[in-house]
Structures are given as structure tokens and as C-alpha cells.
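quick one: BES bound model?
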Amino acid sequence: MLRAPAGGARRPAVLITLKERVVQLHVAGGNLTAQRVDTYVVTVPEGARRLAGQTAAVDRALDGAIAAQLAAGVATGKDGEITALAAGDGVHAQRVVVLGTGKRDEAETADRLRTRIANASRRLRTLGVGSVALGLGGVTSPIDPASAGRAIAEGLLLGLYRFDKHHTRAADRAQGSIGDVTLVEPAAGRVAEVRRGVEQGRVLAEGQNLARDLGNEPANLMTPTIVAQQAQRIASETGLECKVIERAEAERLKMGSFLSVANGSVQPPKFIVLTYRGGRGNRFVGLLGKGITFDTGGISLKPGDGMESMKGDMTGAASVIGAMQAIARLAPRVNVMGIAPCTENMPSGSATKPGDVVYAMDGQSIEVINTDAEGRLVLADALAYAKQQGCDTLVDIATLTGAMNVALGSVRFGVFANNDRVWSDLERASGAAGERVWRMPLDREYADQIKSDVADVKNTGGRAAGSVTAAKFLERFAGNTPWAHLDIAGVMNASSDRGVLVKGNSGIPVRTLVHFVLGRAR
Ligand code: BES
Ligand code: MN
Ligand code: ZN
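yep, here:
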């Protein structure tokens, strides 16, 4: 096969170090008013006639200042409403923030809590609140304490995420800061569980924020080589095994489908394998993420408008790396292999051409009709490799088709599965994560659209049901192994700050993947 020119010369000399985020999170028992911090955050439901619990205790210490805000209609308790008061001498804090929790008849859920905390934490950041103590009395009671702790940690750490490292002037970066946050749980019997949940939520959110960092980084600074360096860094920090299959080894393994996408690029492809061993035996849950560090479309070149968003076409790979970091830290009793086939998709004199026939690792021949349908080509070899390595469950994650965005937009991502148990486990995991999914079909007839005249299969099936024919293509490479395909093209980016989402790469579905793996543990 044709070799791309050596890419070493253009490789950045230094590894980009991604910014560490430090919001210290603590959990304490006892009274909120015992905390010596800059700001107390207390909650009130909408239409509250009298204050209760910690809010009432702070109100008493402030001689009824909170009740006065409610009586005057300054604070109403609407969900997410924030009212800041000067605290005076009655308490150890300088400021009290009253956070509305909405109508009491709307059942409080971990989801609503996570969203409220995320929105509130951005508002608190602009207020520059310093150290914060948040009273949990009443906030968490309808939710089990671990789930509440997890939701709050996720809301804080995901909601406060920002990607502003390339603004060289401080004024252009997101303003404000939050110091330490202490969650004060008045029910002594719940403190340990809240703490356990906070720890888990931190790990989940940090995994998701890692995926966001990788996905937001522009493609010149997140080449396959740099993704591999990041994977190696995470492996050495967390004790994962990391293997990077270089082009020469991929050739020996006959990964002709993966390599055909890399043909046009000067950047060397990297097929990354992260392994976590928490269970017995040599069987693995396989997590496989599409890692196109930039998708120009190749010879089937994309239009220029909006092409810059294709720096995020490695969000599948980023999600796998973020999930593997979290899995290593949570240490469940299960074996997991994270696979991230990474390459650019570029046009050039050495690029794959429409009509070319390539051979995947498992021997299947593929007619490349459109070089812009490259994700399925890299995943074909990833699926074949995963099976060969002993993965008995396969979950691939890919920004695979624009048609997925047409079908479901940015609210839910599509899940295709050849196995009902994998589907129901994923559905449960997505519920625990608060990331929404929708099952998509795989009827046999859709396969007719990807029959090729010259090879075993072709890589596009026309406009109709574009996400389904892409999934039908992948299904061939999963074979009889239980498999699910997550098409995350629609949810890749958030268009504005909303709840846990911050404008830019969403880091979805890291939390779903981690919950799925936790559910598979002994
Ligand atoms: N990476 C794109 C899909 C995509 C589009 C992801 C928008 C995120 C946002 C993928 O490689 C692609 O180009 N798909 C083609 C397939 C077609 C050529 C069959 C598409 O969707 O147009
Ligand atoms: Mn493409
Ligand atoms: Zn793509």
C-alpha cells in the first residue's frame, strides 16, 4: 500500500499539558452555621410559607433576613434562582446566597439537582464567592445520599468547566472563581454516603472533562501522536496498560481499512489500546472510540462552512480515554479494553480515492464509495481487533453520521444494538448518568443499501436512513459478539452553557460508559 510521507517533522516538540482544574470539595456533618467560610448557600422551595432546617437556622442567625427577602418577593424560590445577601455579624460567613429549588410538587431527582447545581455554580463563580458551604438539609432528602453527593459533585465540576487556555489575554478568559466547596449534611447517618457519592462524582466528572479537553483542542494541537501521548500519560498516572500500535504494526496486522483513512495525512496514525484488569480471566468489555483528529472528508472533500467543528471527530476516542481514566480510579471488578484508532482524514496525492477497495483485518473487502464515510472504516478494524483480543462485549462510540443529528438533534444520542441485554444495560447506565439515549433499528433490509458490486460491502448507503446503514456496516464487523454502537454526532457539541453542558465539546457519553462498565462488574 501507499505510504504517507513521514510526519515526524511537523510533530510538536512538547507534549501539551492540559490544565488541571482545582475545585476542592469537602463533605462535613453538623450545623451549617459552624462553618467558617466566605459564603453560605441555603435553599428555599418555591412558595415556601415558612423556612425549615438549615435555611431556618441561618435565617434566625440573620434576624429573619432571608424570610424578609421572601416576604418582599425579592426571592421566590423558583428553580435555579439566586439571591445574594450580605450576612452581617450573626454568622461566620460574609455572604449568604439563597438558591431556589422550585415547586415542591415536582419530584426532586438527581438529574434536576445536578442541573441546578451546575447552573448555580456558574452564577456563584461570577459573584467571586470564595470558600462556600452548601447546606444539604432538604436538598438531598428525597434522593439517596450517594446519588445526591454524586449529582452535586458532577454539577459543580462539569458546570464550572471551561476551555480558555488559548486566550492569551486574561480578560478574554471566563471571569471569576470559586474556592473550596464544603457540603454540609445535617443528618449524621447520611454523611459517609454523601462523601462516597461525591468521590464517585468527582471521578466521573474529571473523566468527562478530560474528554472535553481532548475534544476541544484544535486538530493541530491534538494530532494522533498527541492523543497517544495523552493516553500514555493517563495510563502511567492511573496504572492502566497502554499500547500504541504504529503504522508498521498495523500493516502486519492487516488493518487495511484503518490505514486507508490515514493514507492522505502526513500525521502518523496511532491505534491506541488501554487495558484495565479488574476481573478474572482474559475476557474484556471493549470500548471502541472513533478517533478522527480532523475530518476534511478526504478526496470526497467537505464544504468549508463549519469544517472547523471536525476537530471534534475524535470525541469517541476522547470519551473512551476519559472513561478509562474514571474506570481505573473506581477499580471495578471487571476487565476493560479501551481502543482508540486515531488518524486524520485528509486529501492528498496519496489519499484513498472513491472506488478503491480495501481489506479489513478480518479479511472482509470494502469498496470505498465516499472517503468522507471514514469513521466506519477505522471502526471496522477496531471491532475486528477487539474480538481477536478477547472482548466478549463491544461498545463503539462515534461521531459517525450527520444524519444522526437530523434524526435526534442534540437531546439524545442513538444506540444501535444486536443484543437486547447490551441495550438494556446501556439504557440503565444512561439513566444513572443523566445522559439520554434512544434505540435505533437494525432491520435486515437496510443492509441492501450497502451491497457492493465489486466487494463484500460498500461504505455508504445513500441518503435514506444514513445513520442506520452506517450501523449496518459496523454490525458486519461485530459479527455474533454482543455489540452496541453509539452515534454521538448530534450531541458532540453544546451550543451554549446549559446545566452540566458548557459551550463546546460535551464529553458525552463518558458517564454512561462508566456506569455501563460498573454494571458489568462482579
Ligand atoms: N464525522 C462525520 C459525521 C459528523 C457530522 C459528525 C457532523 C459530527 C457532526 C462523518 O465522518 C461523515 O462525514 N459522515 C458522512 C457520511 C456520508 C458520507 C455517508 C455524513 O454524515 O455526511
Ligand atoms: Mn467523514
Ligand atoms: Zn468523520
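The longest strand covers residues 335-345.
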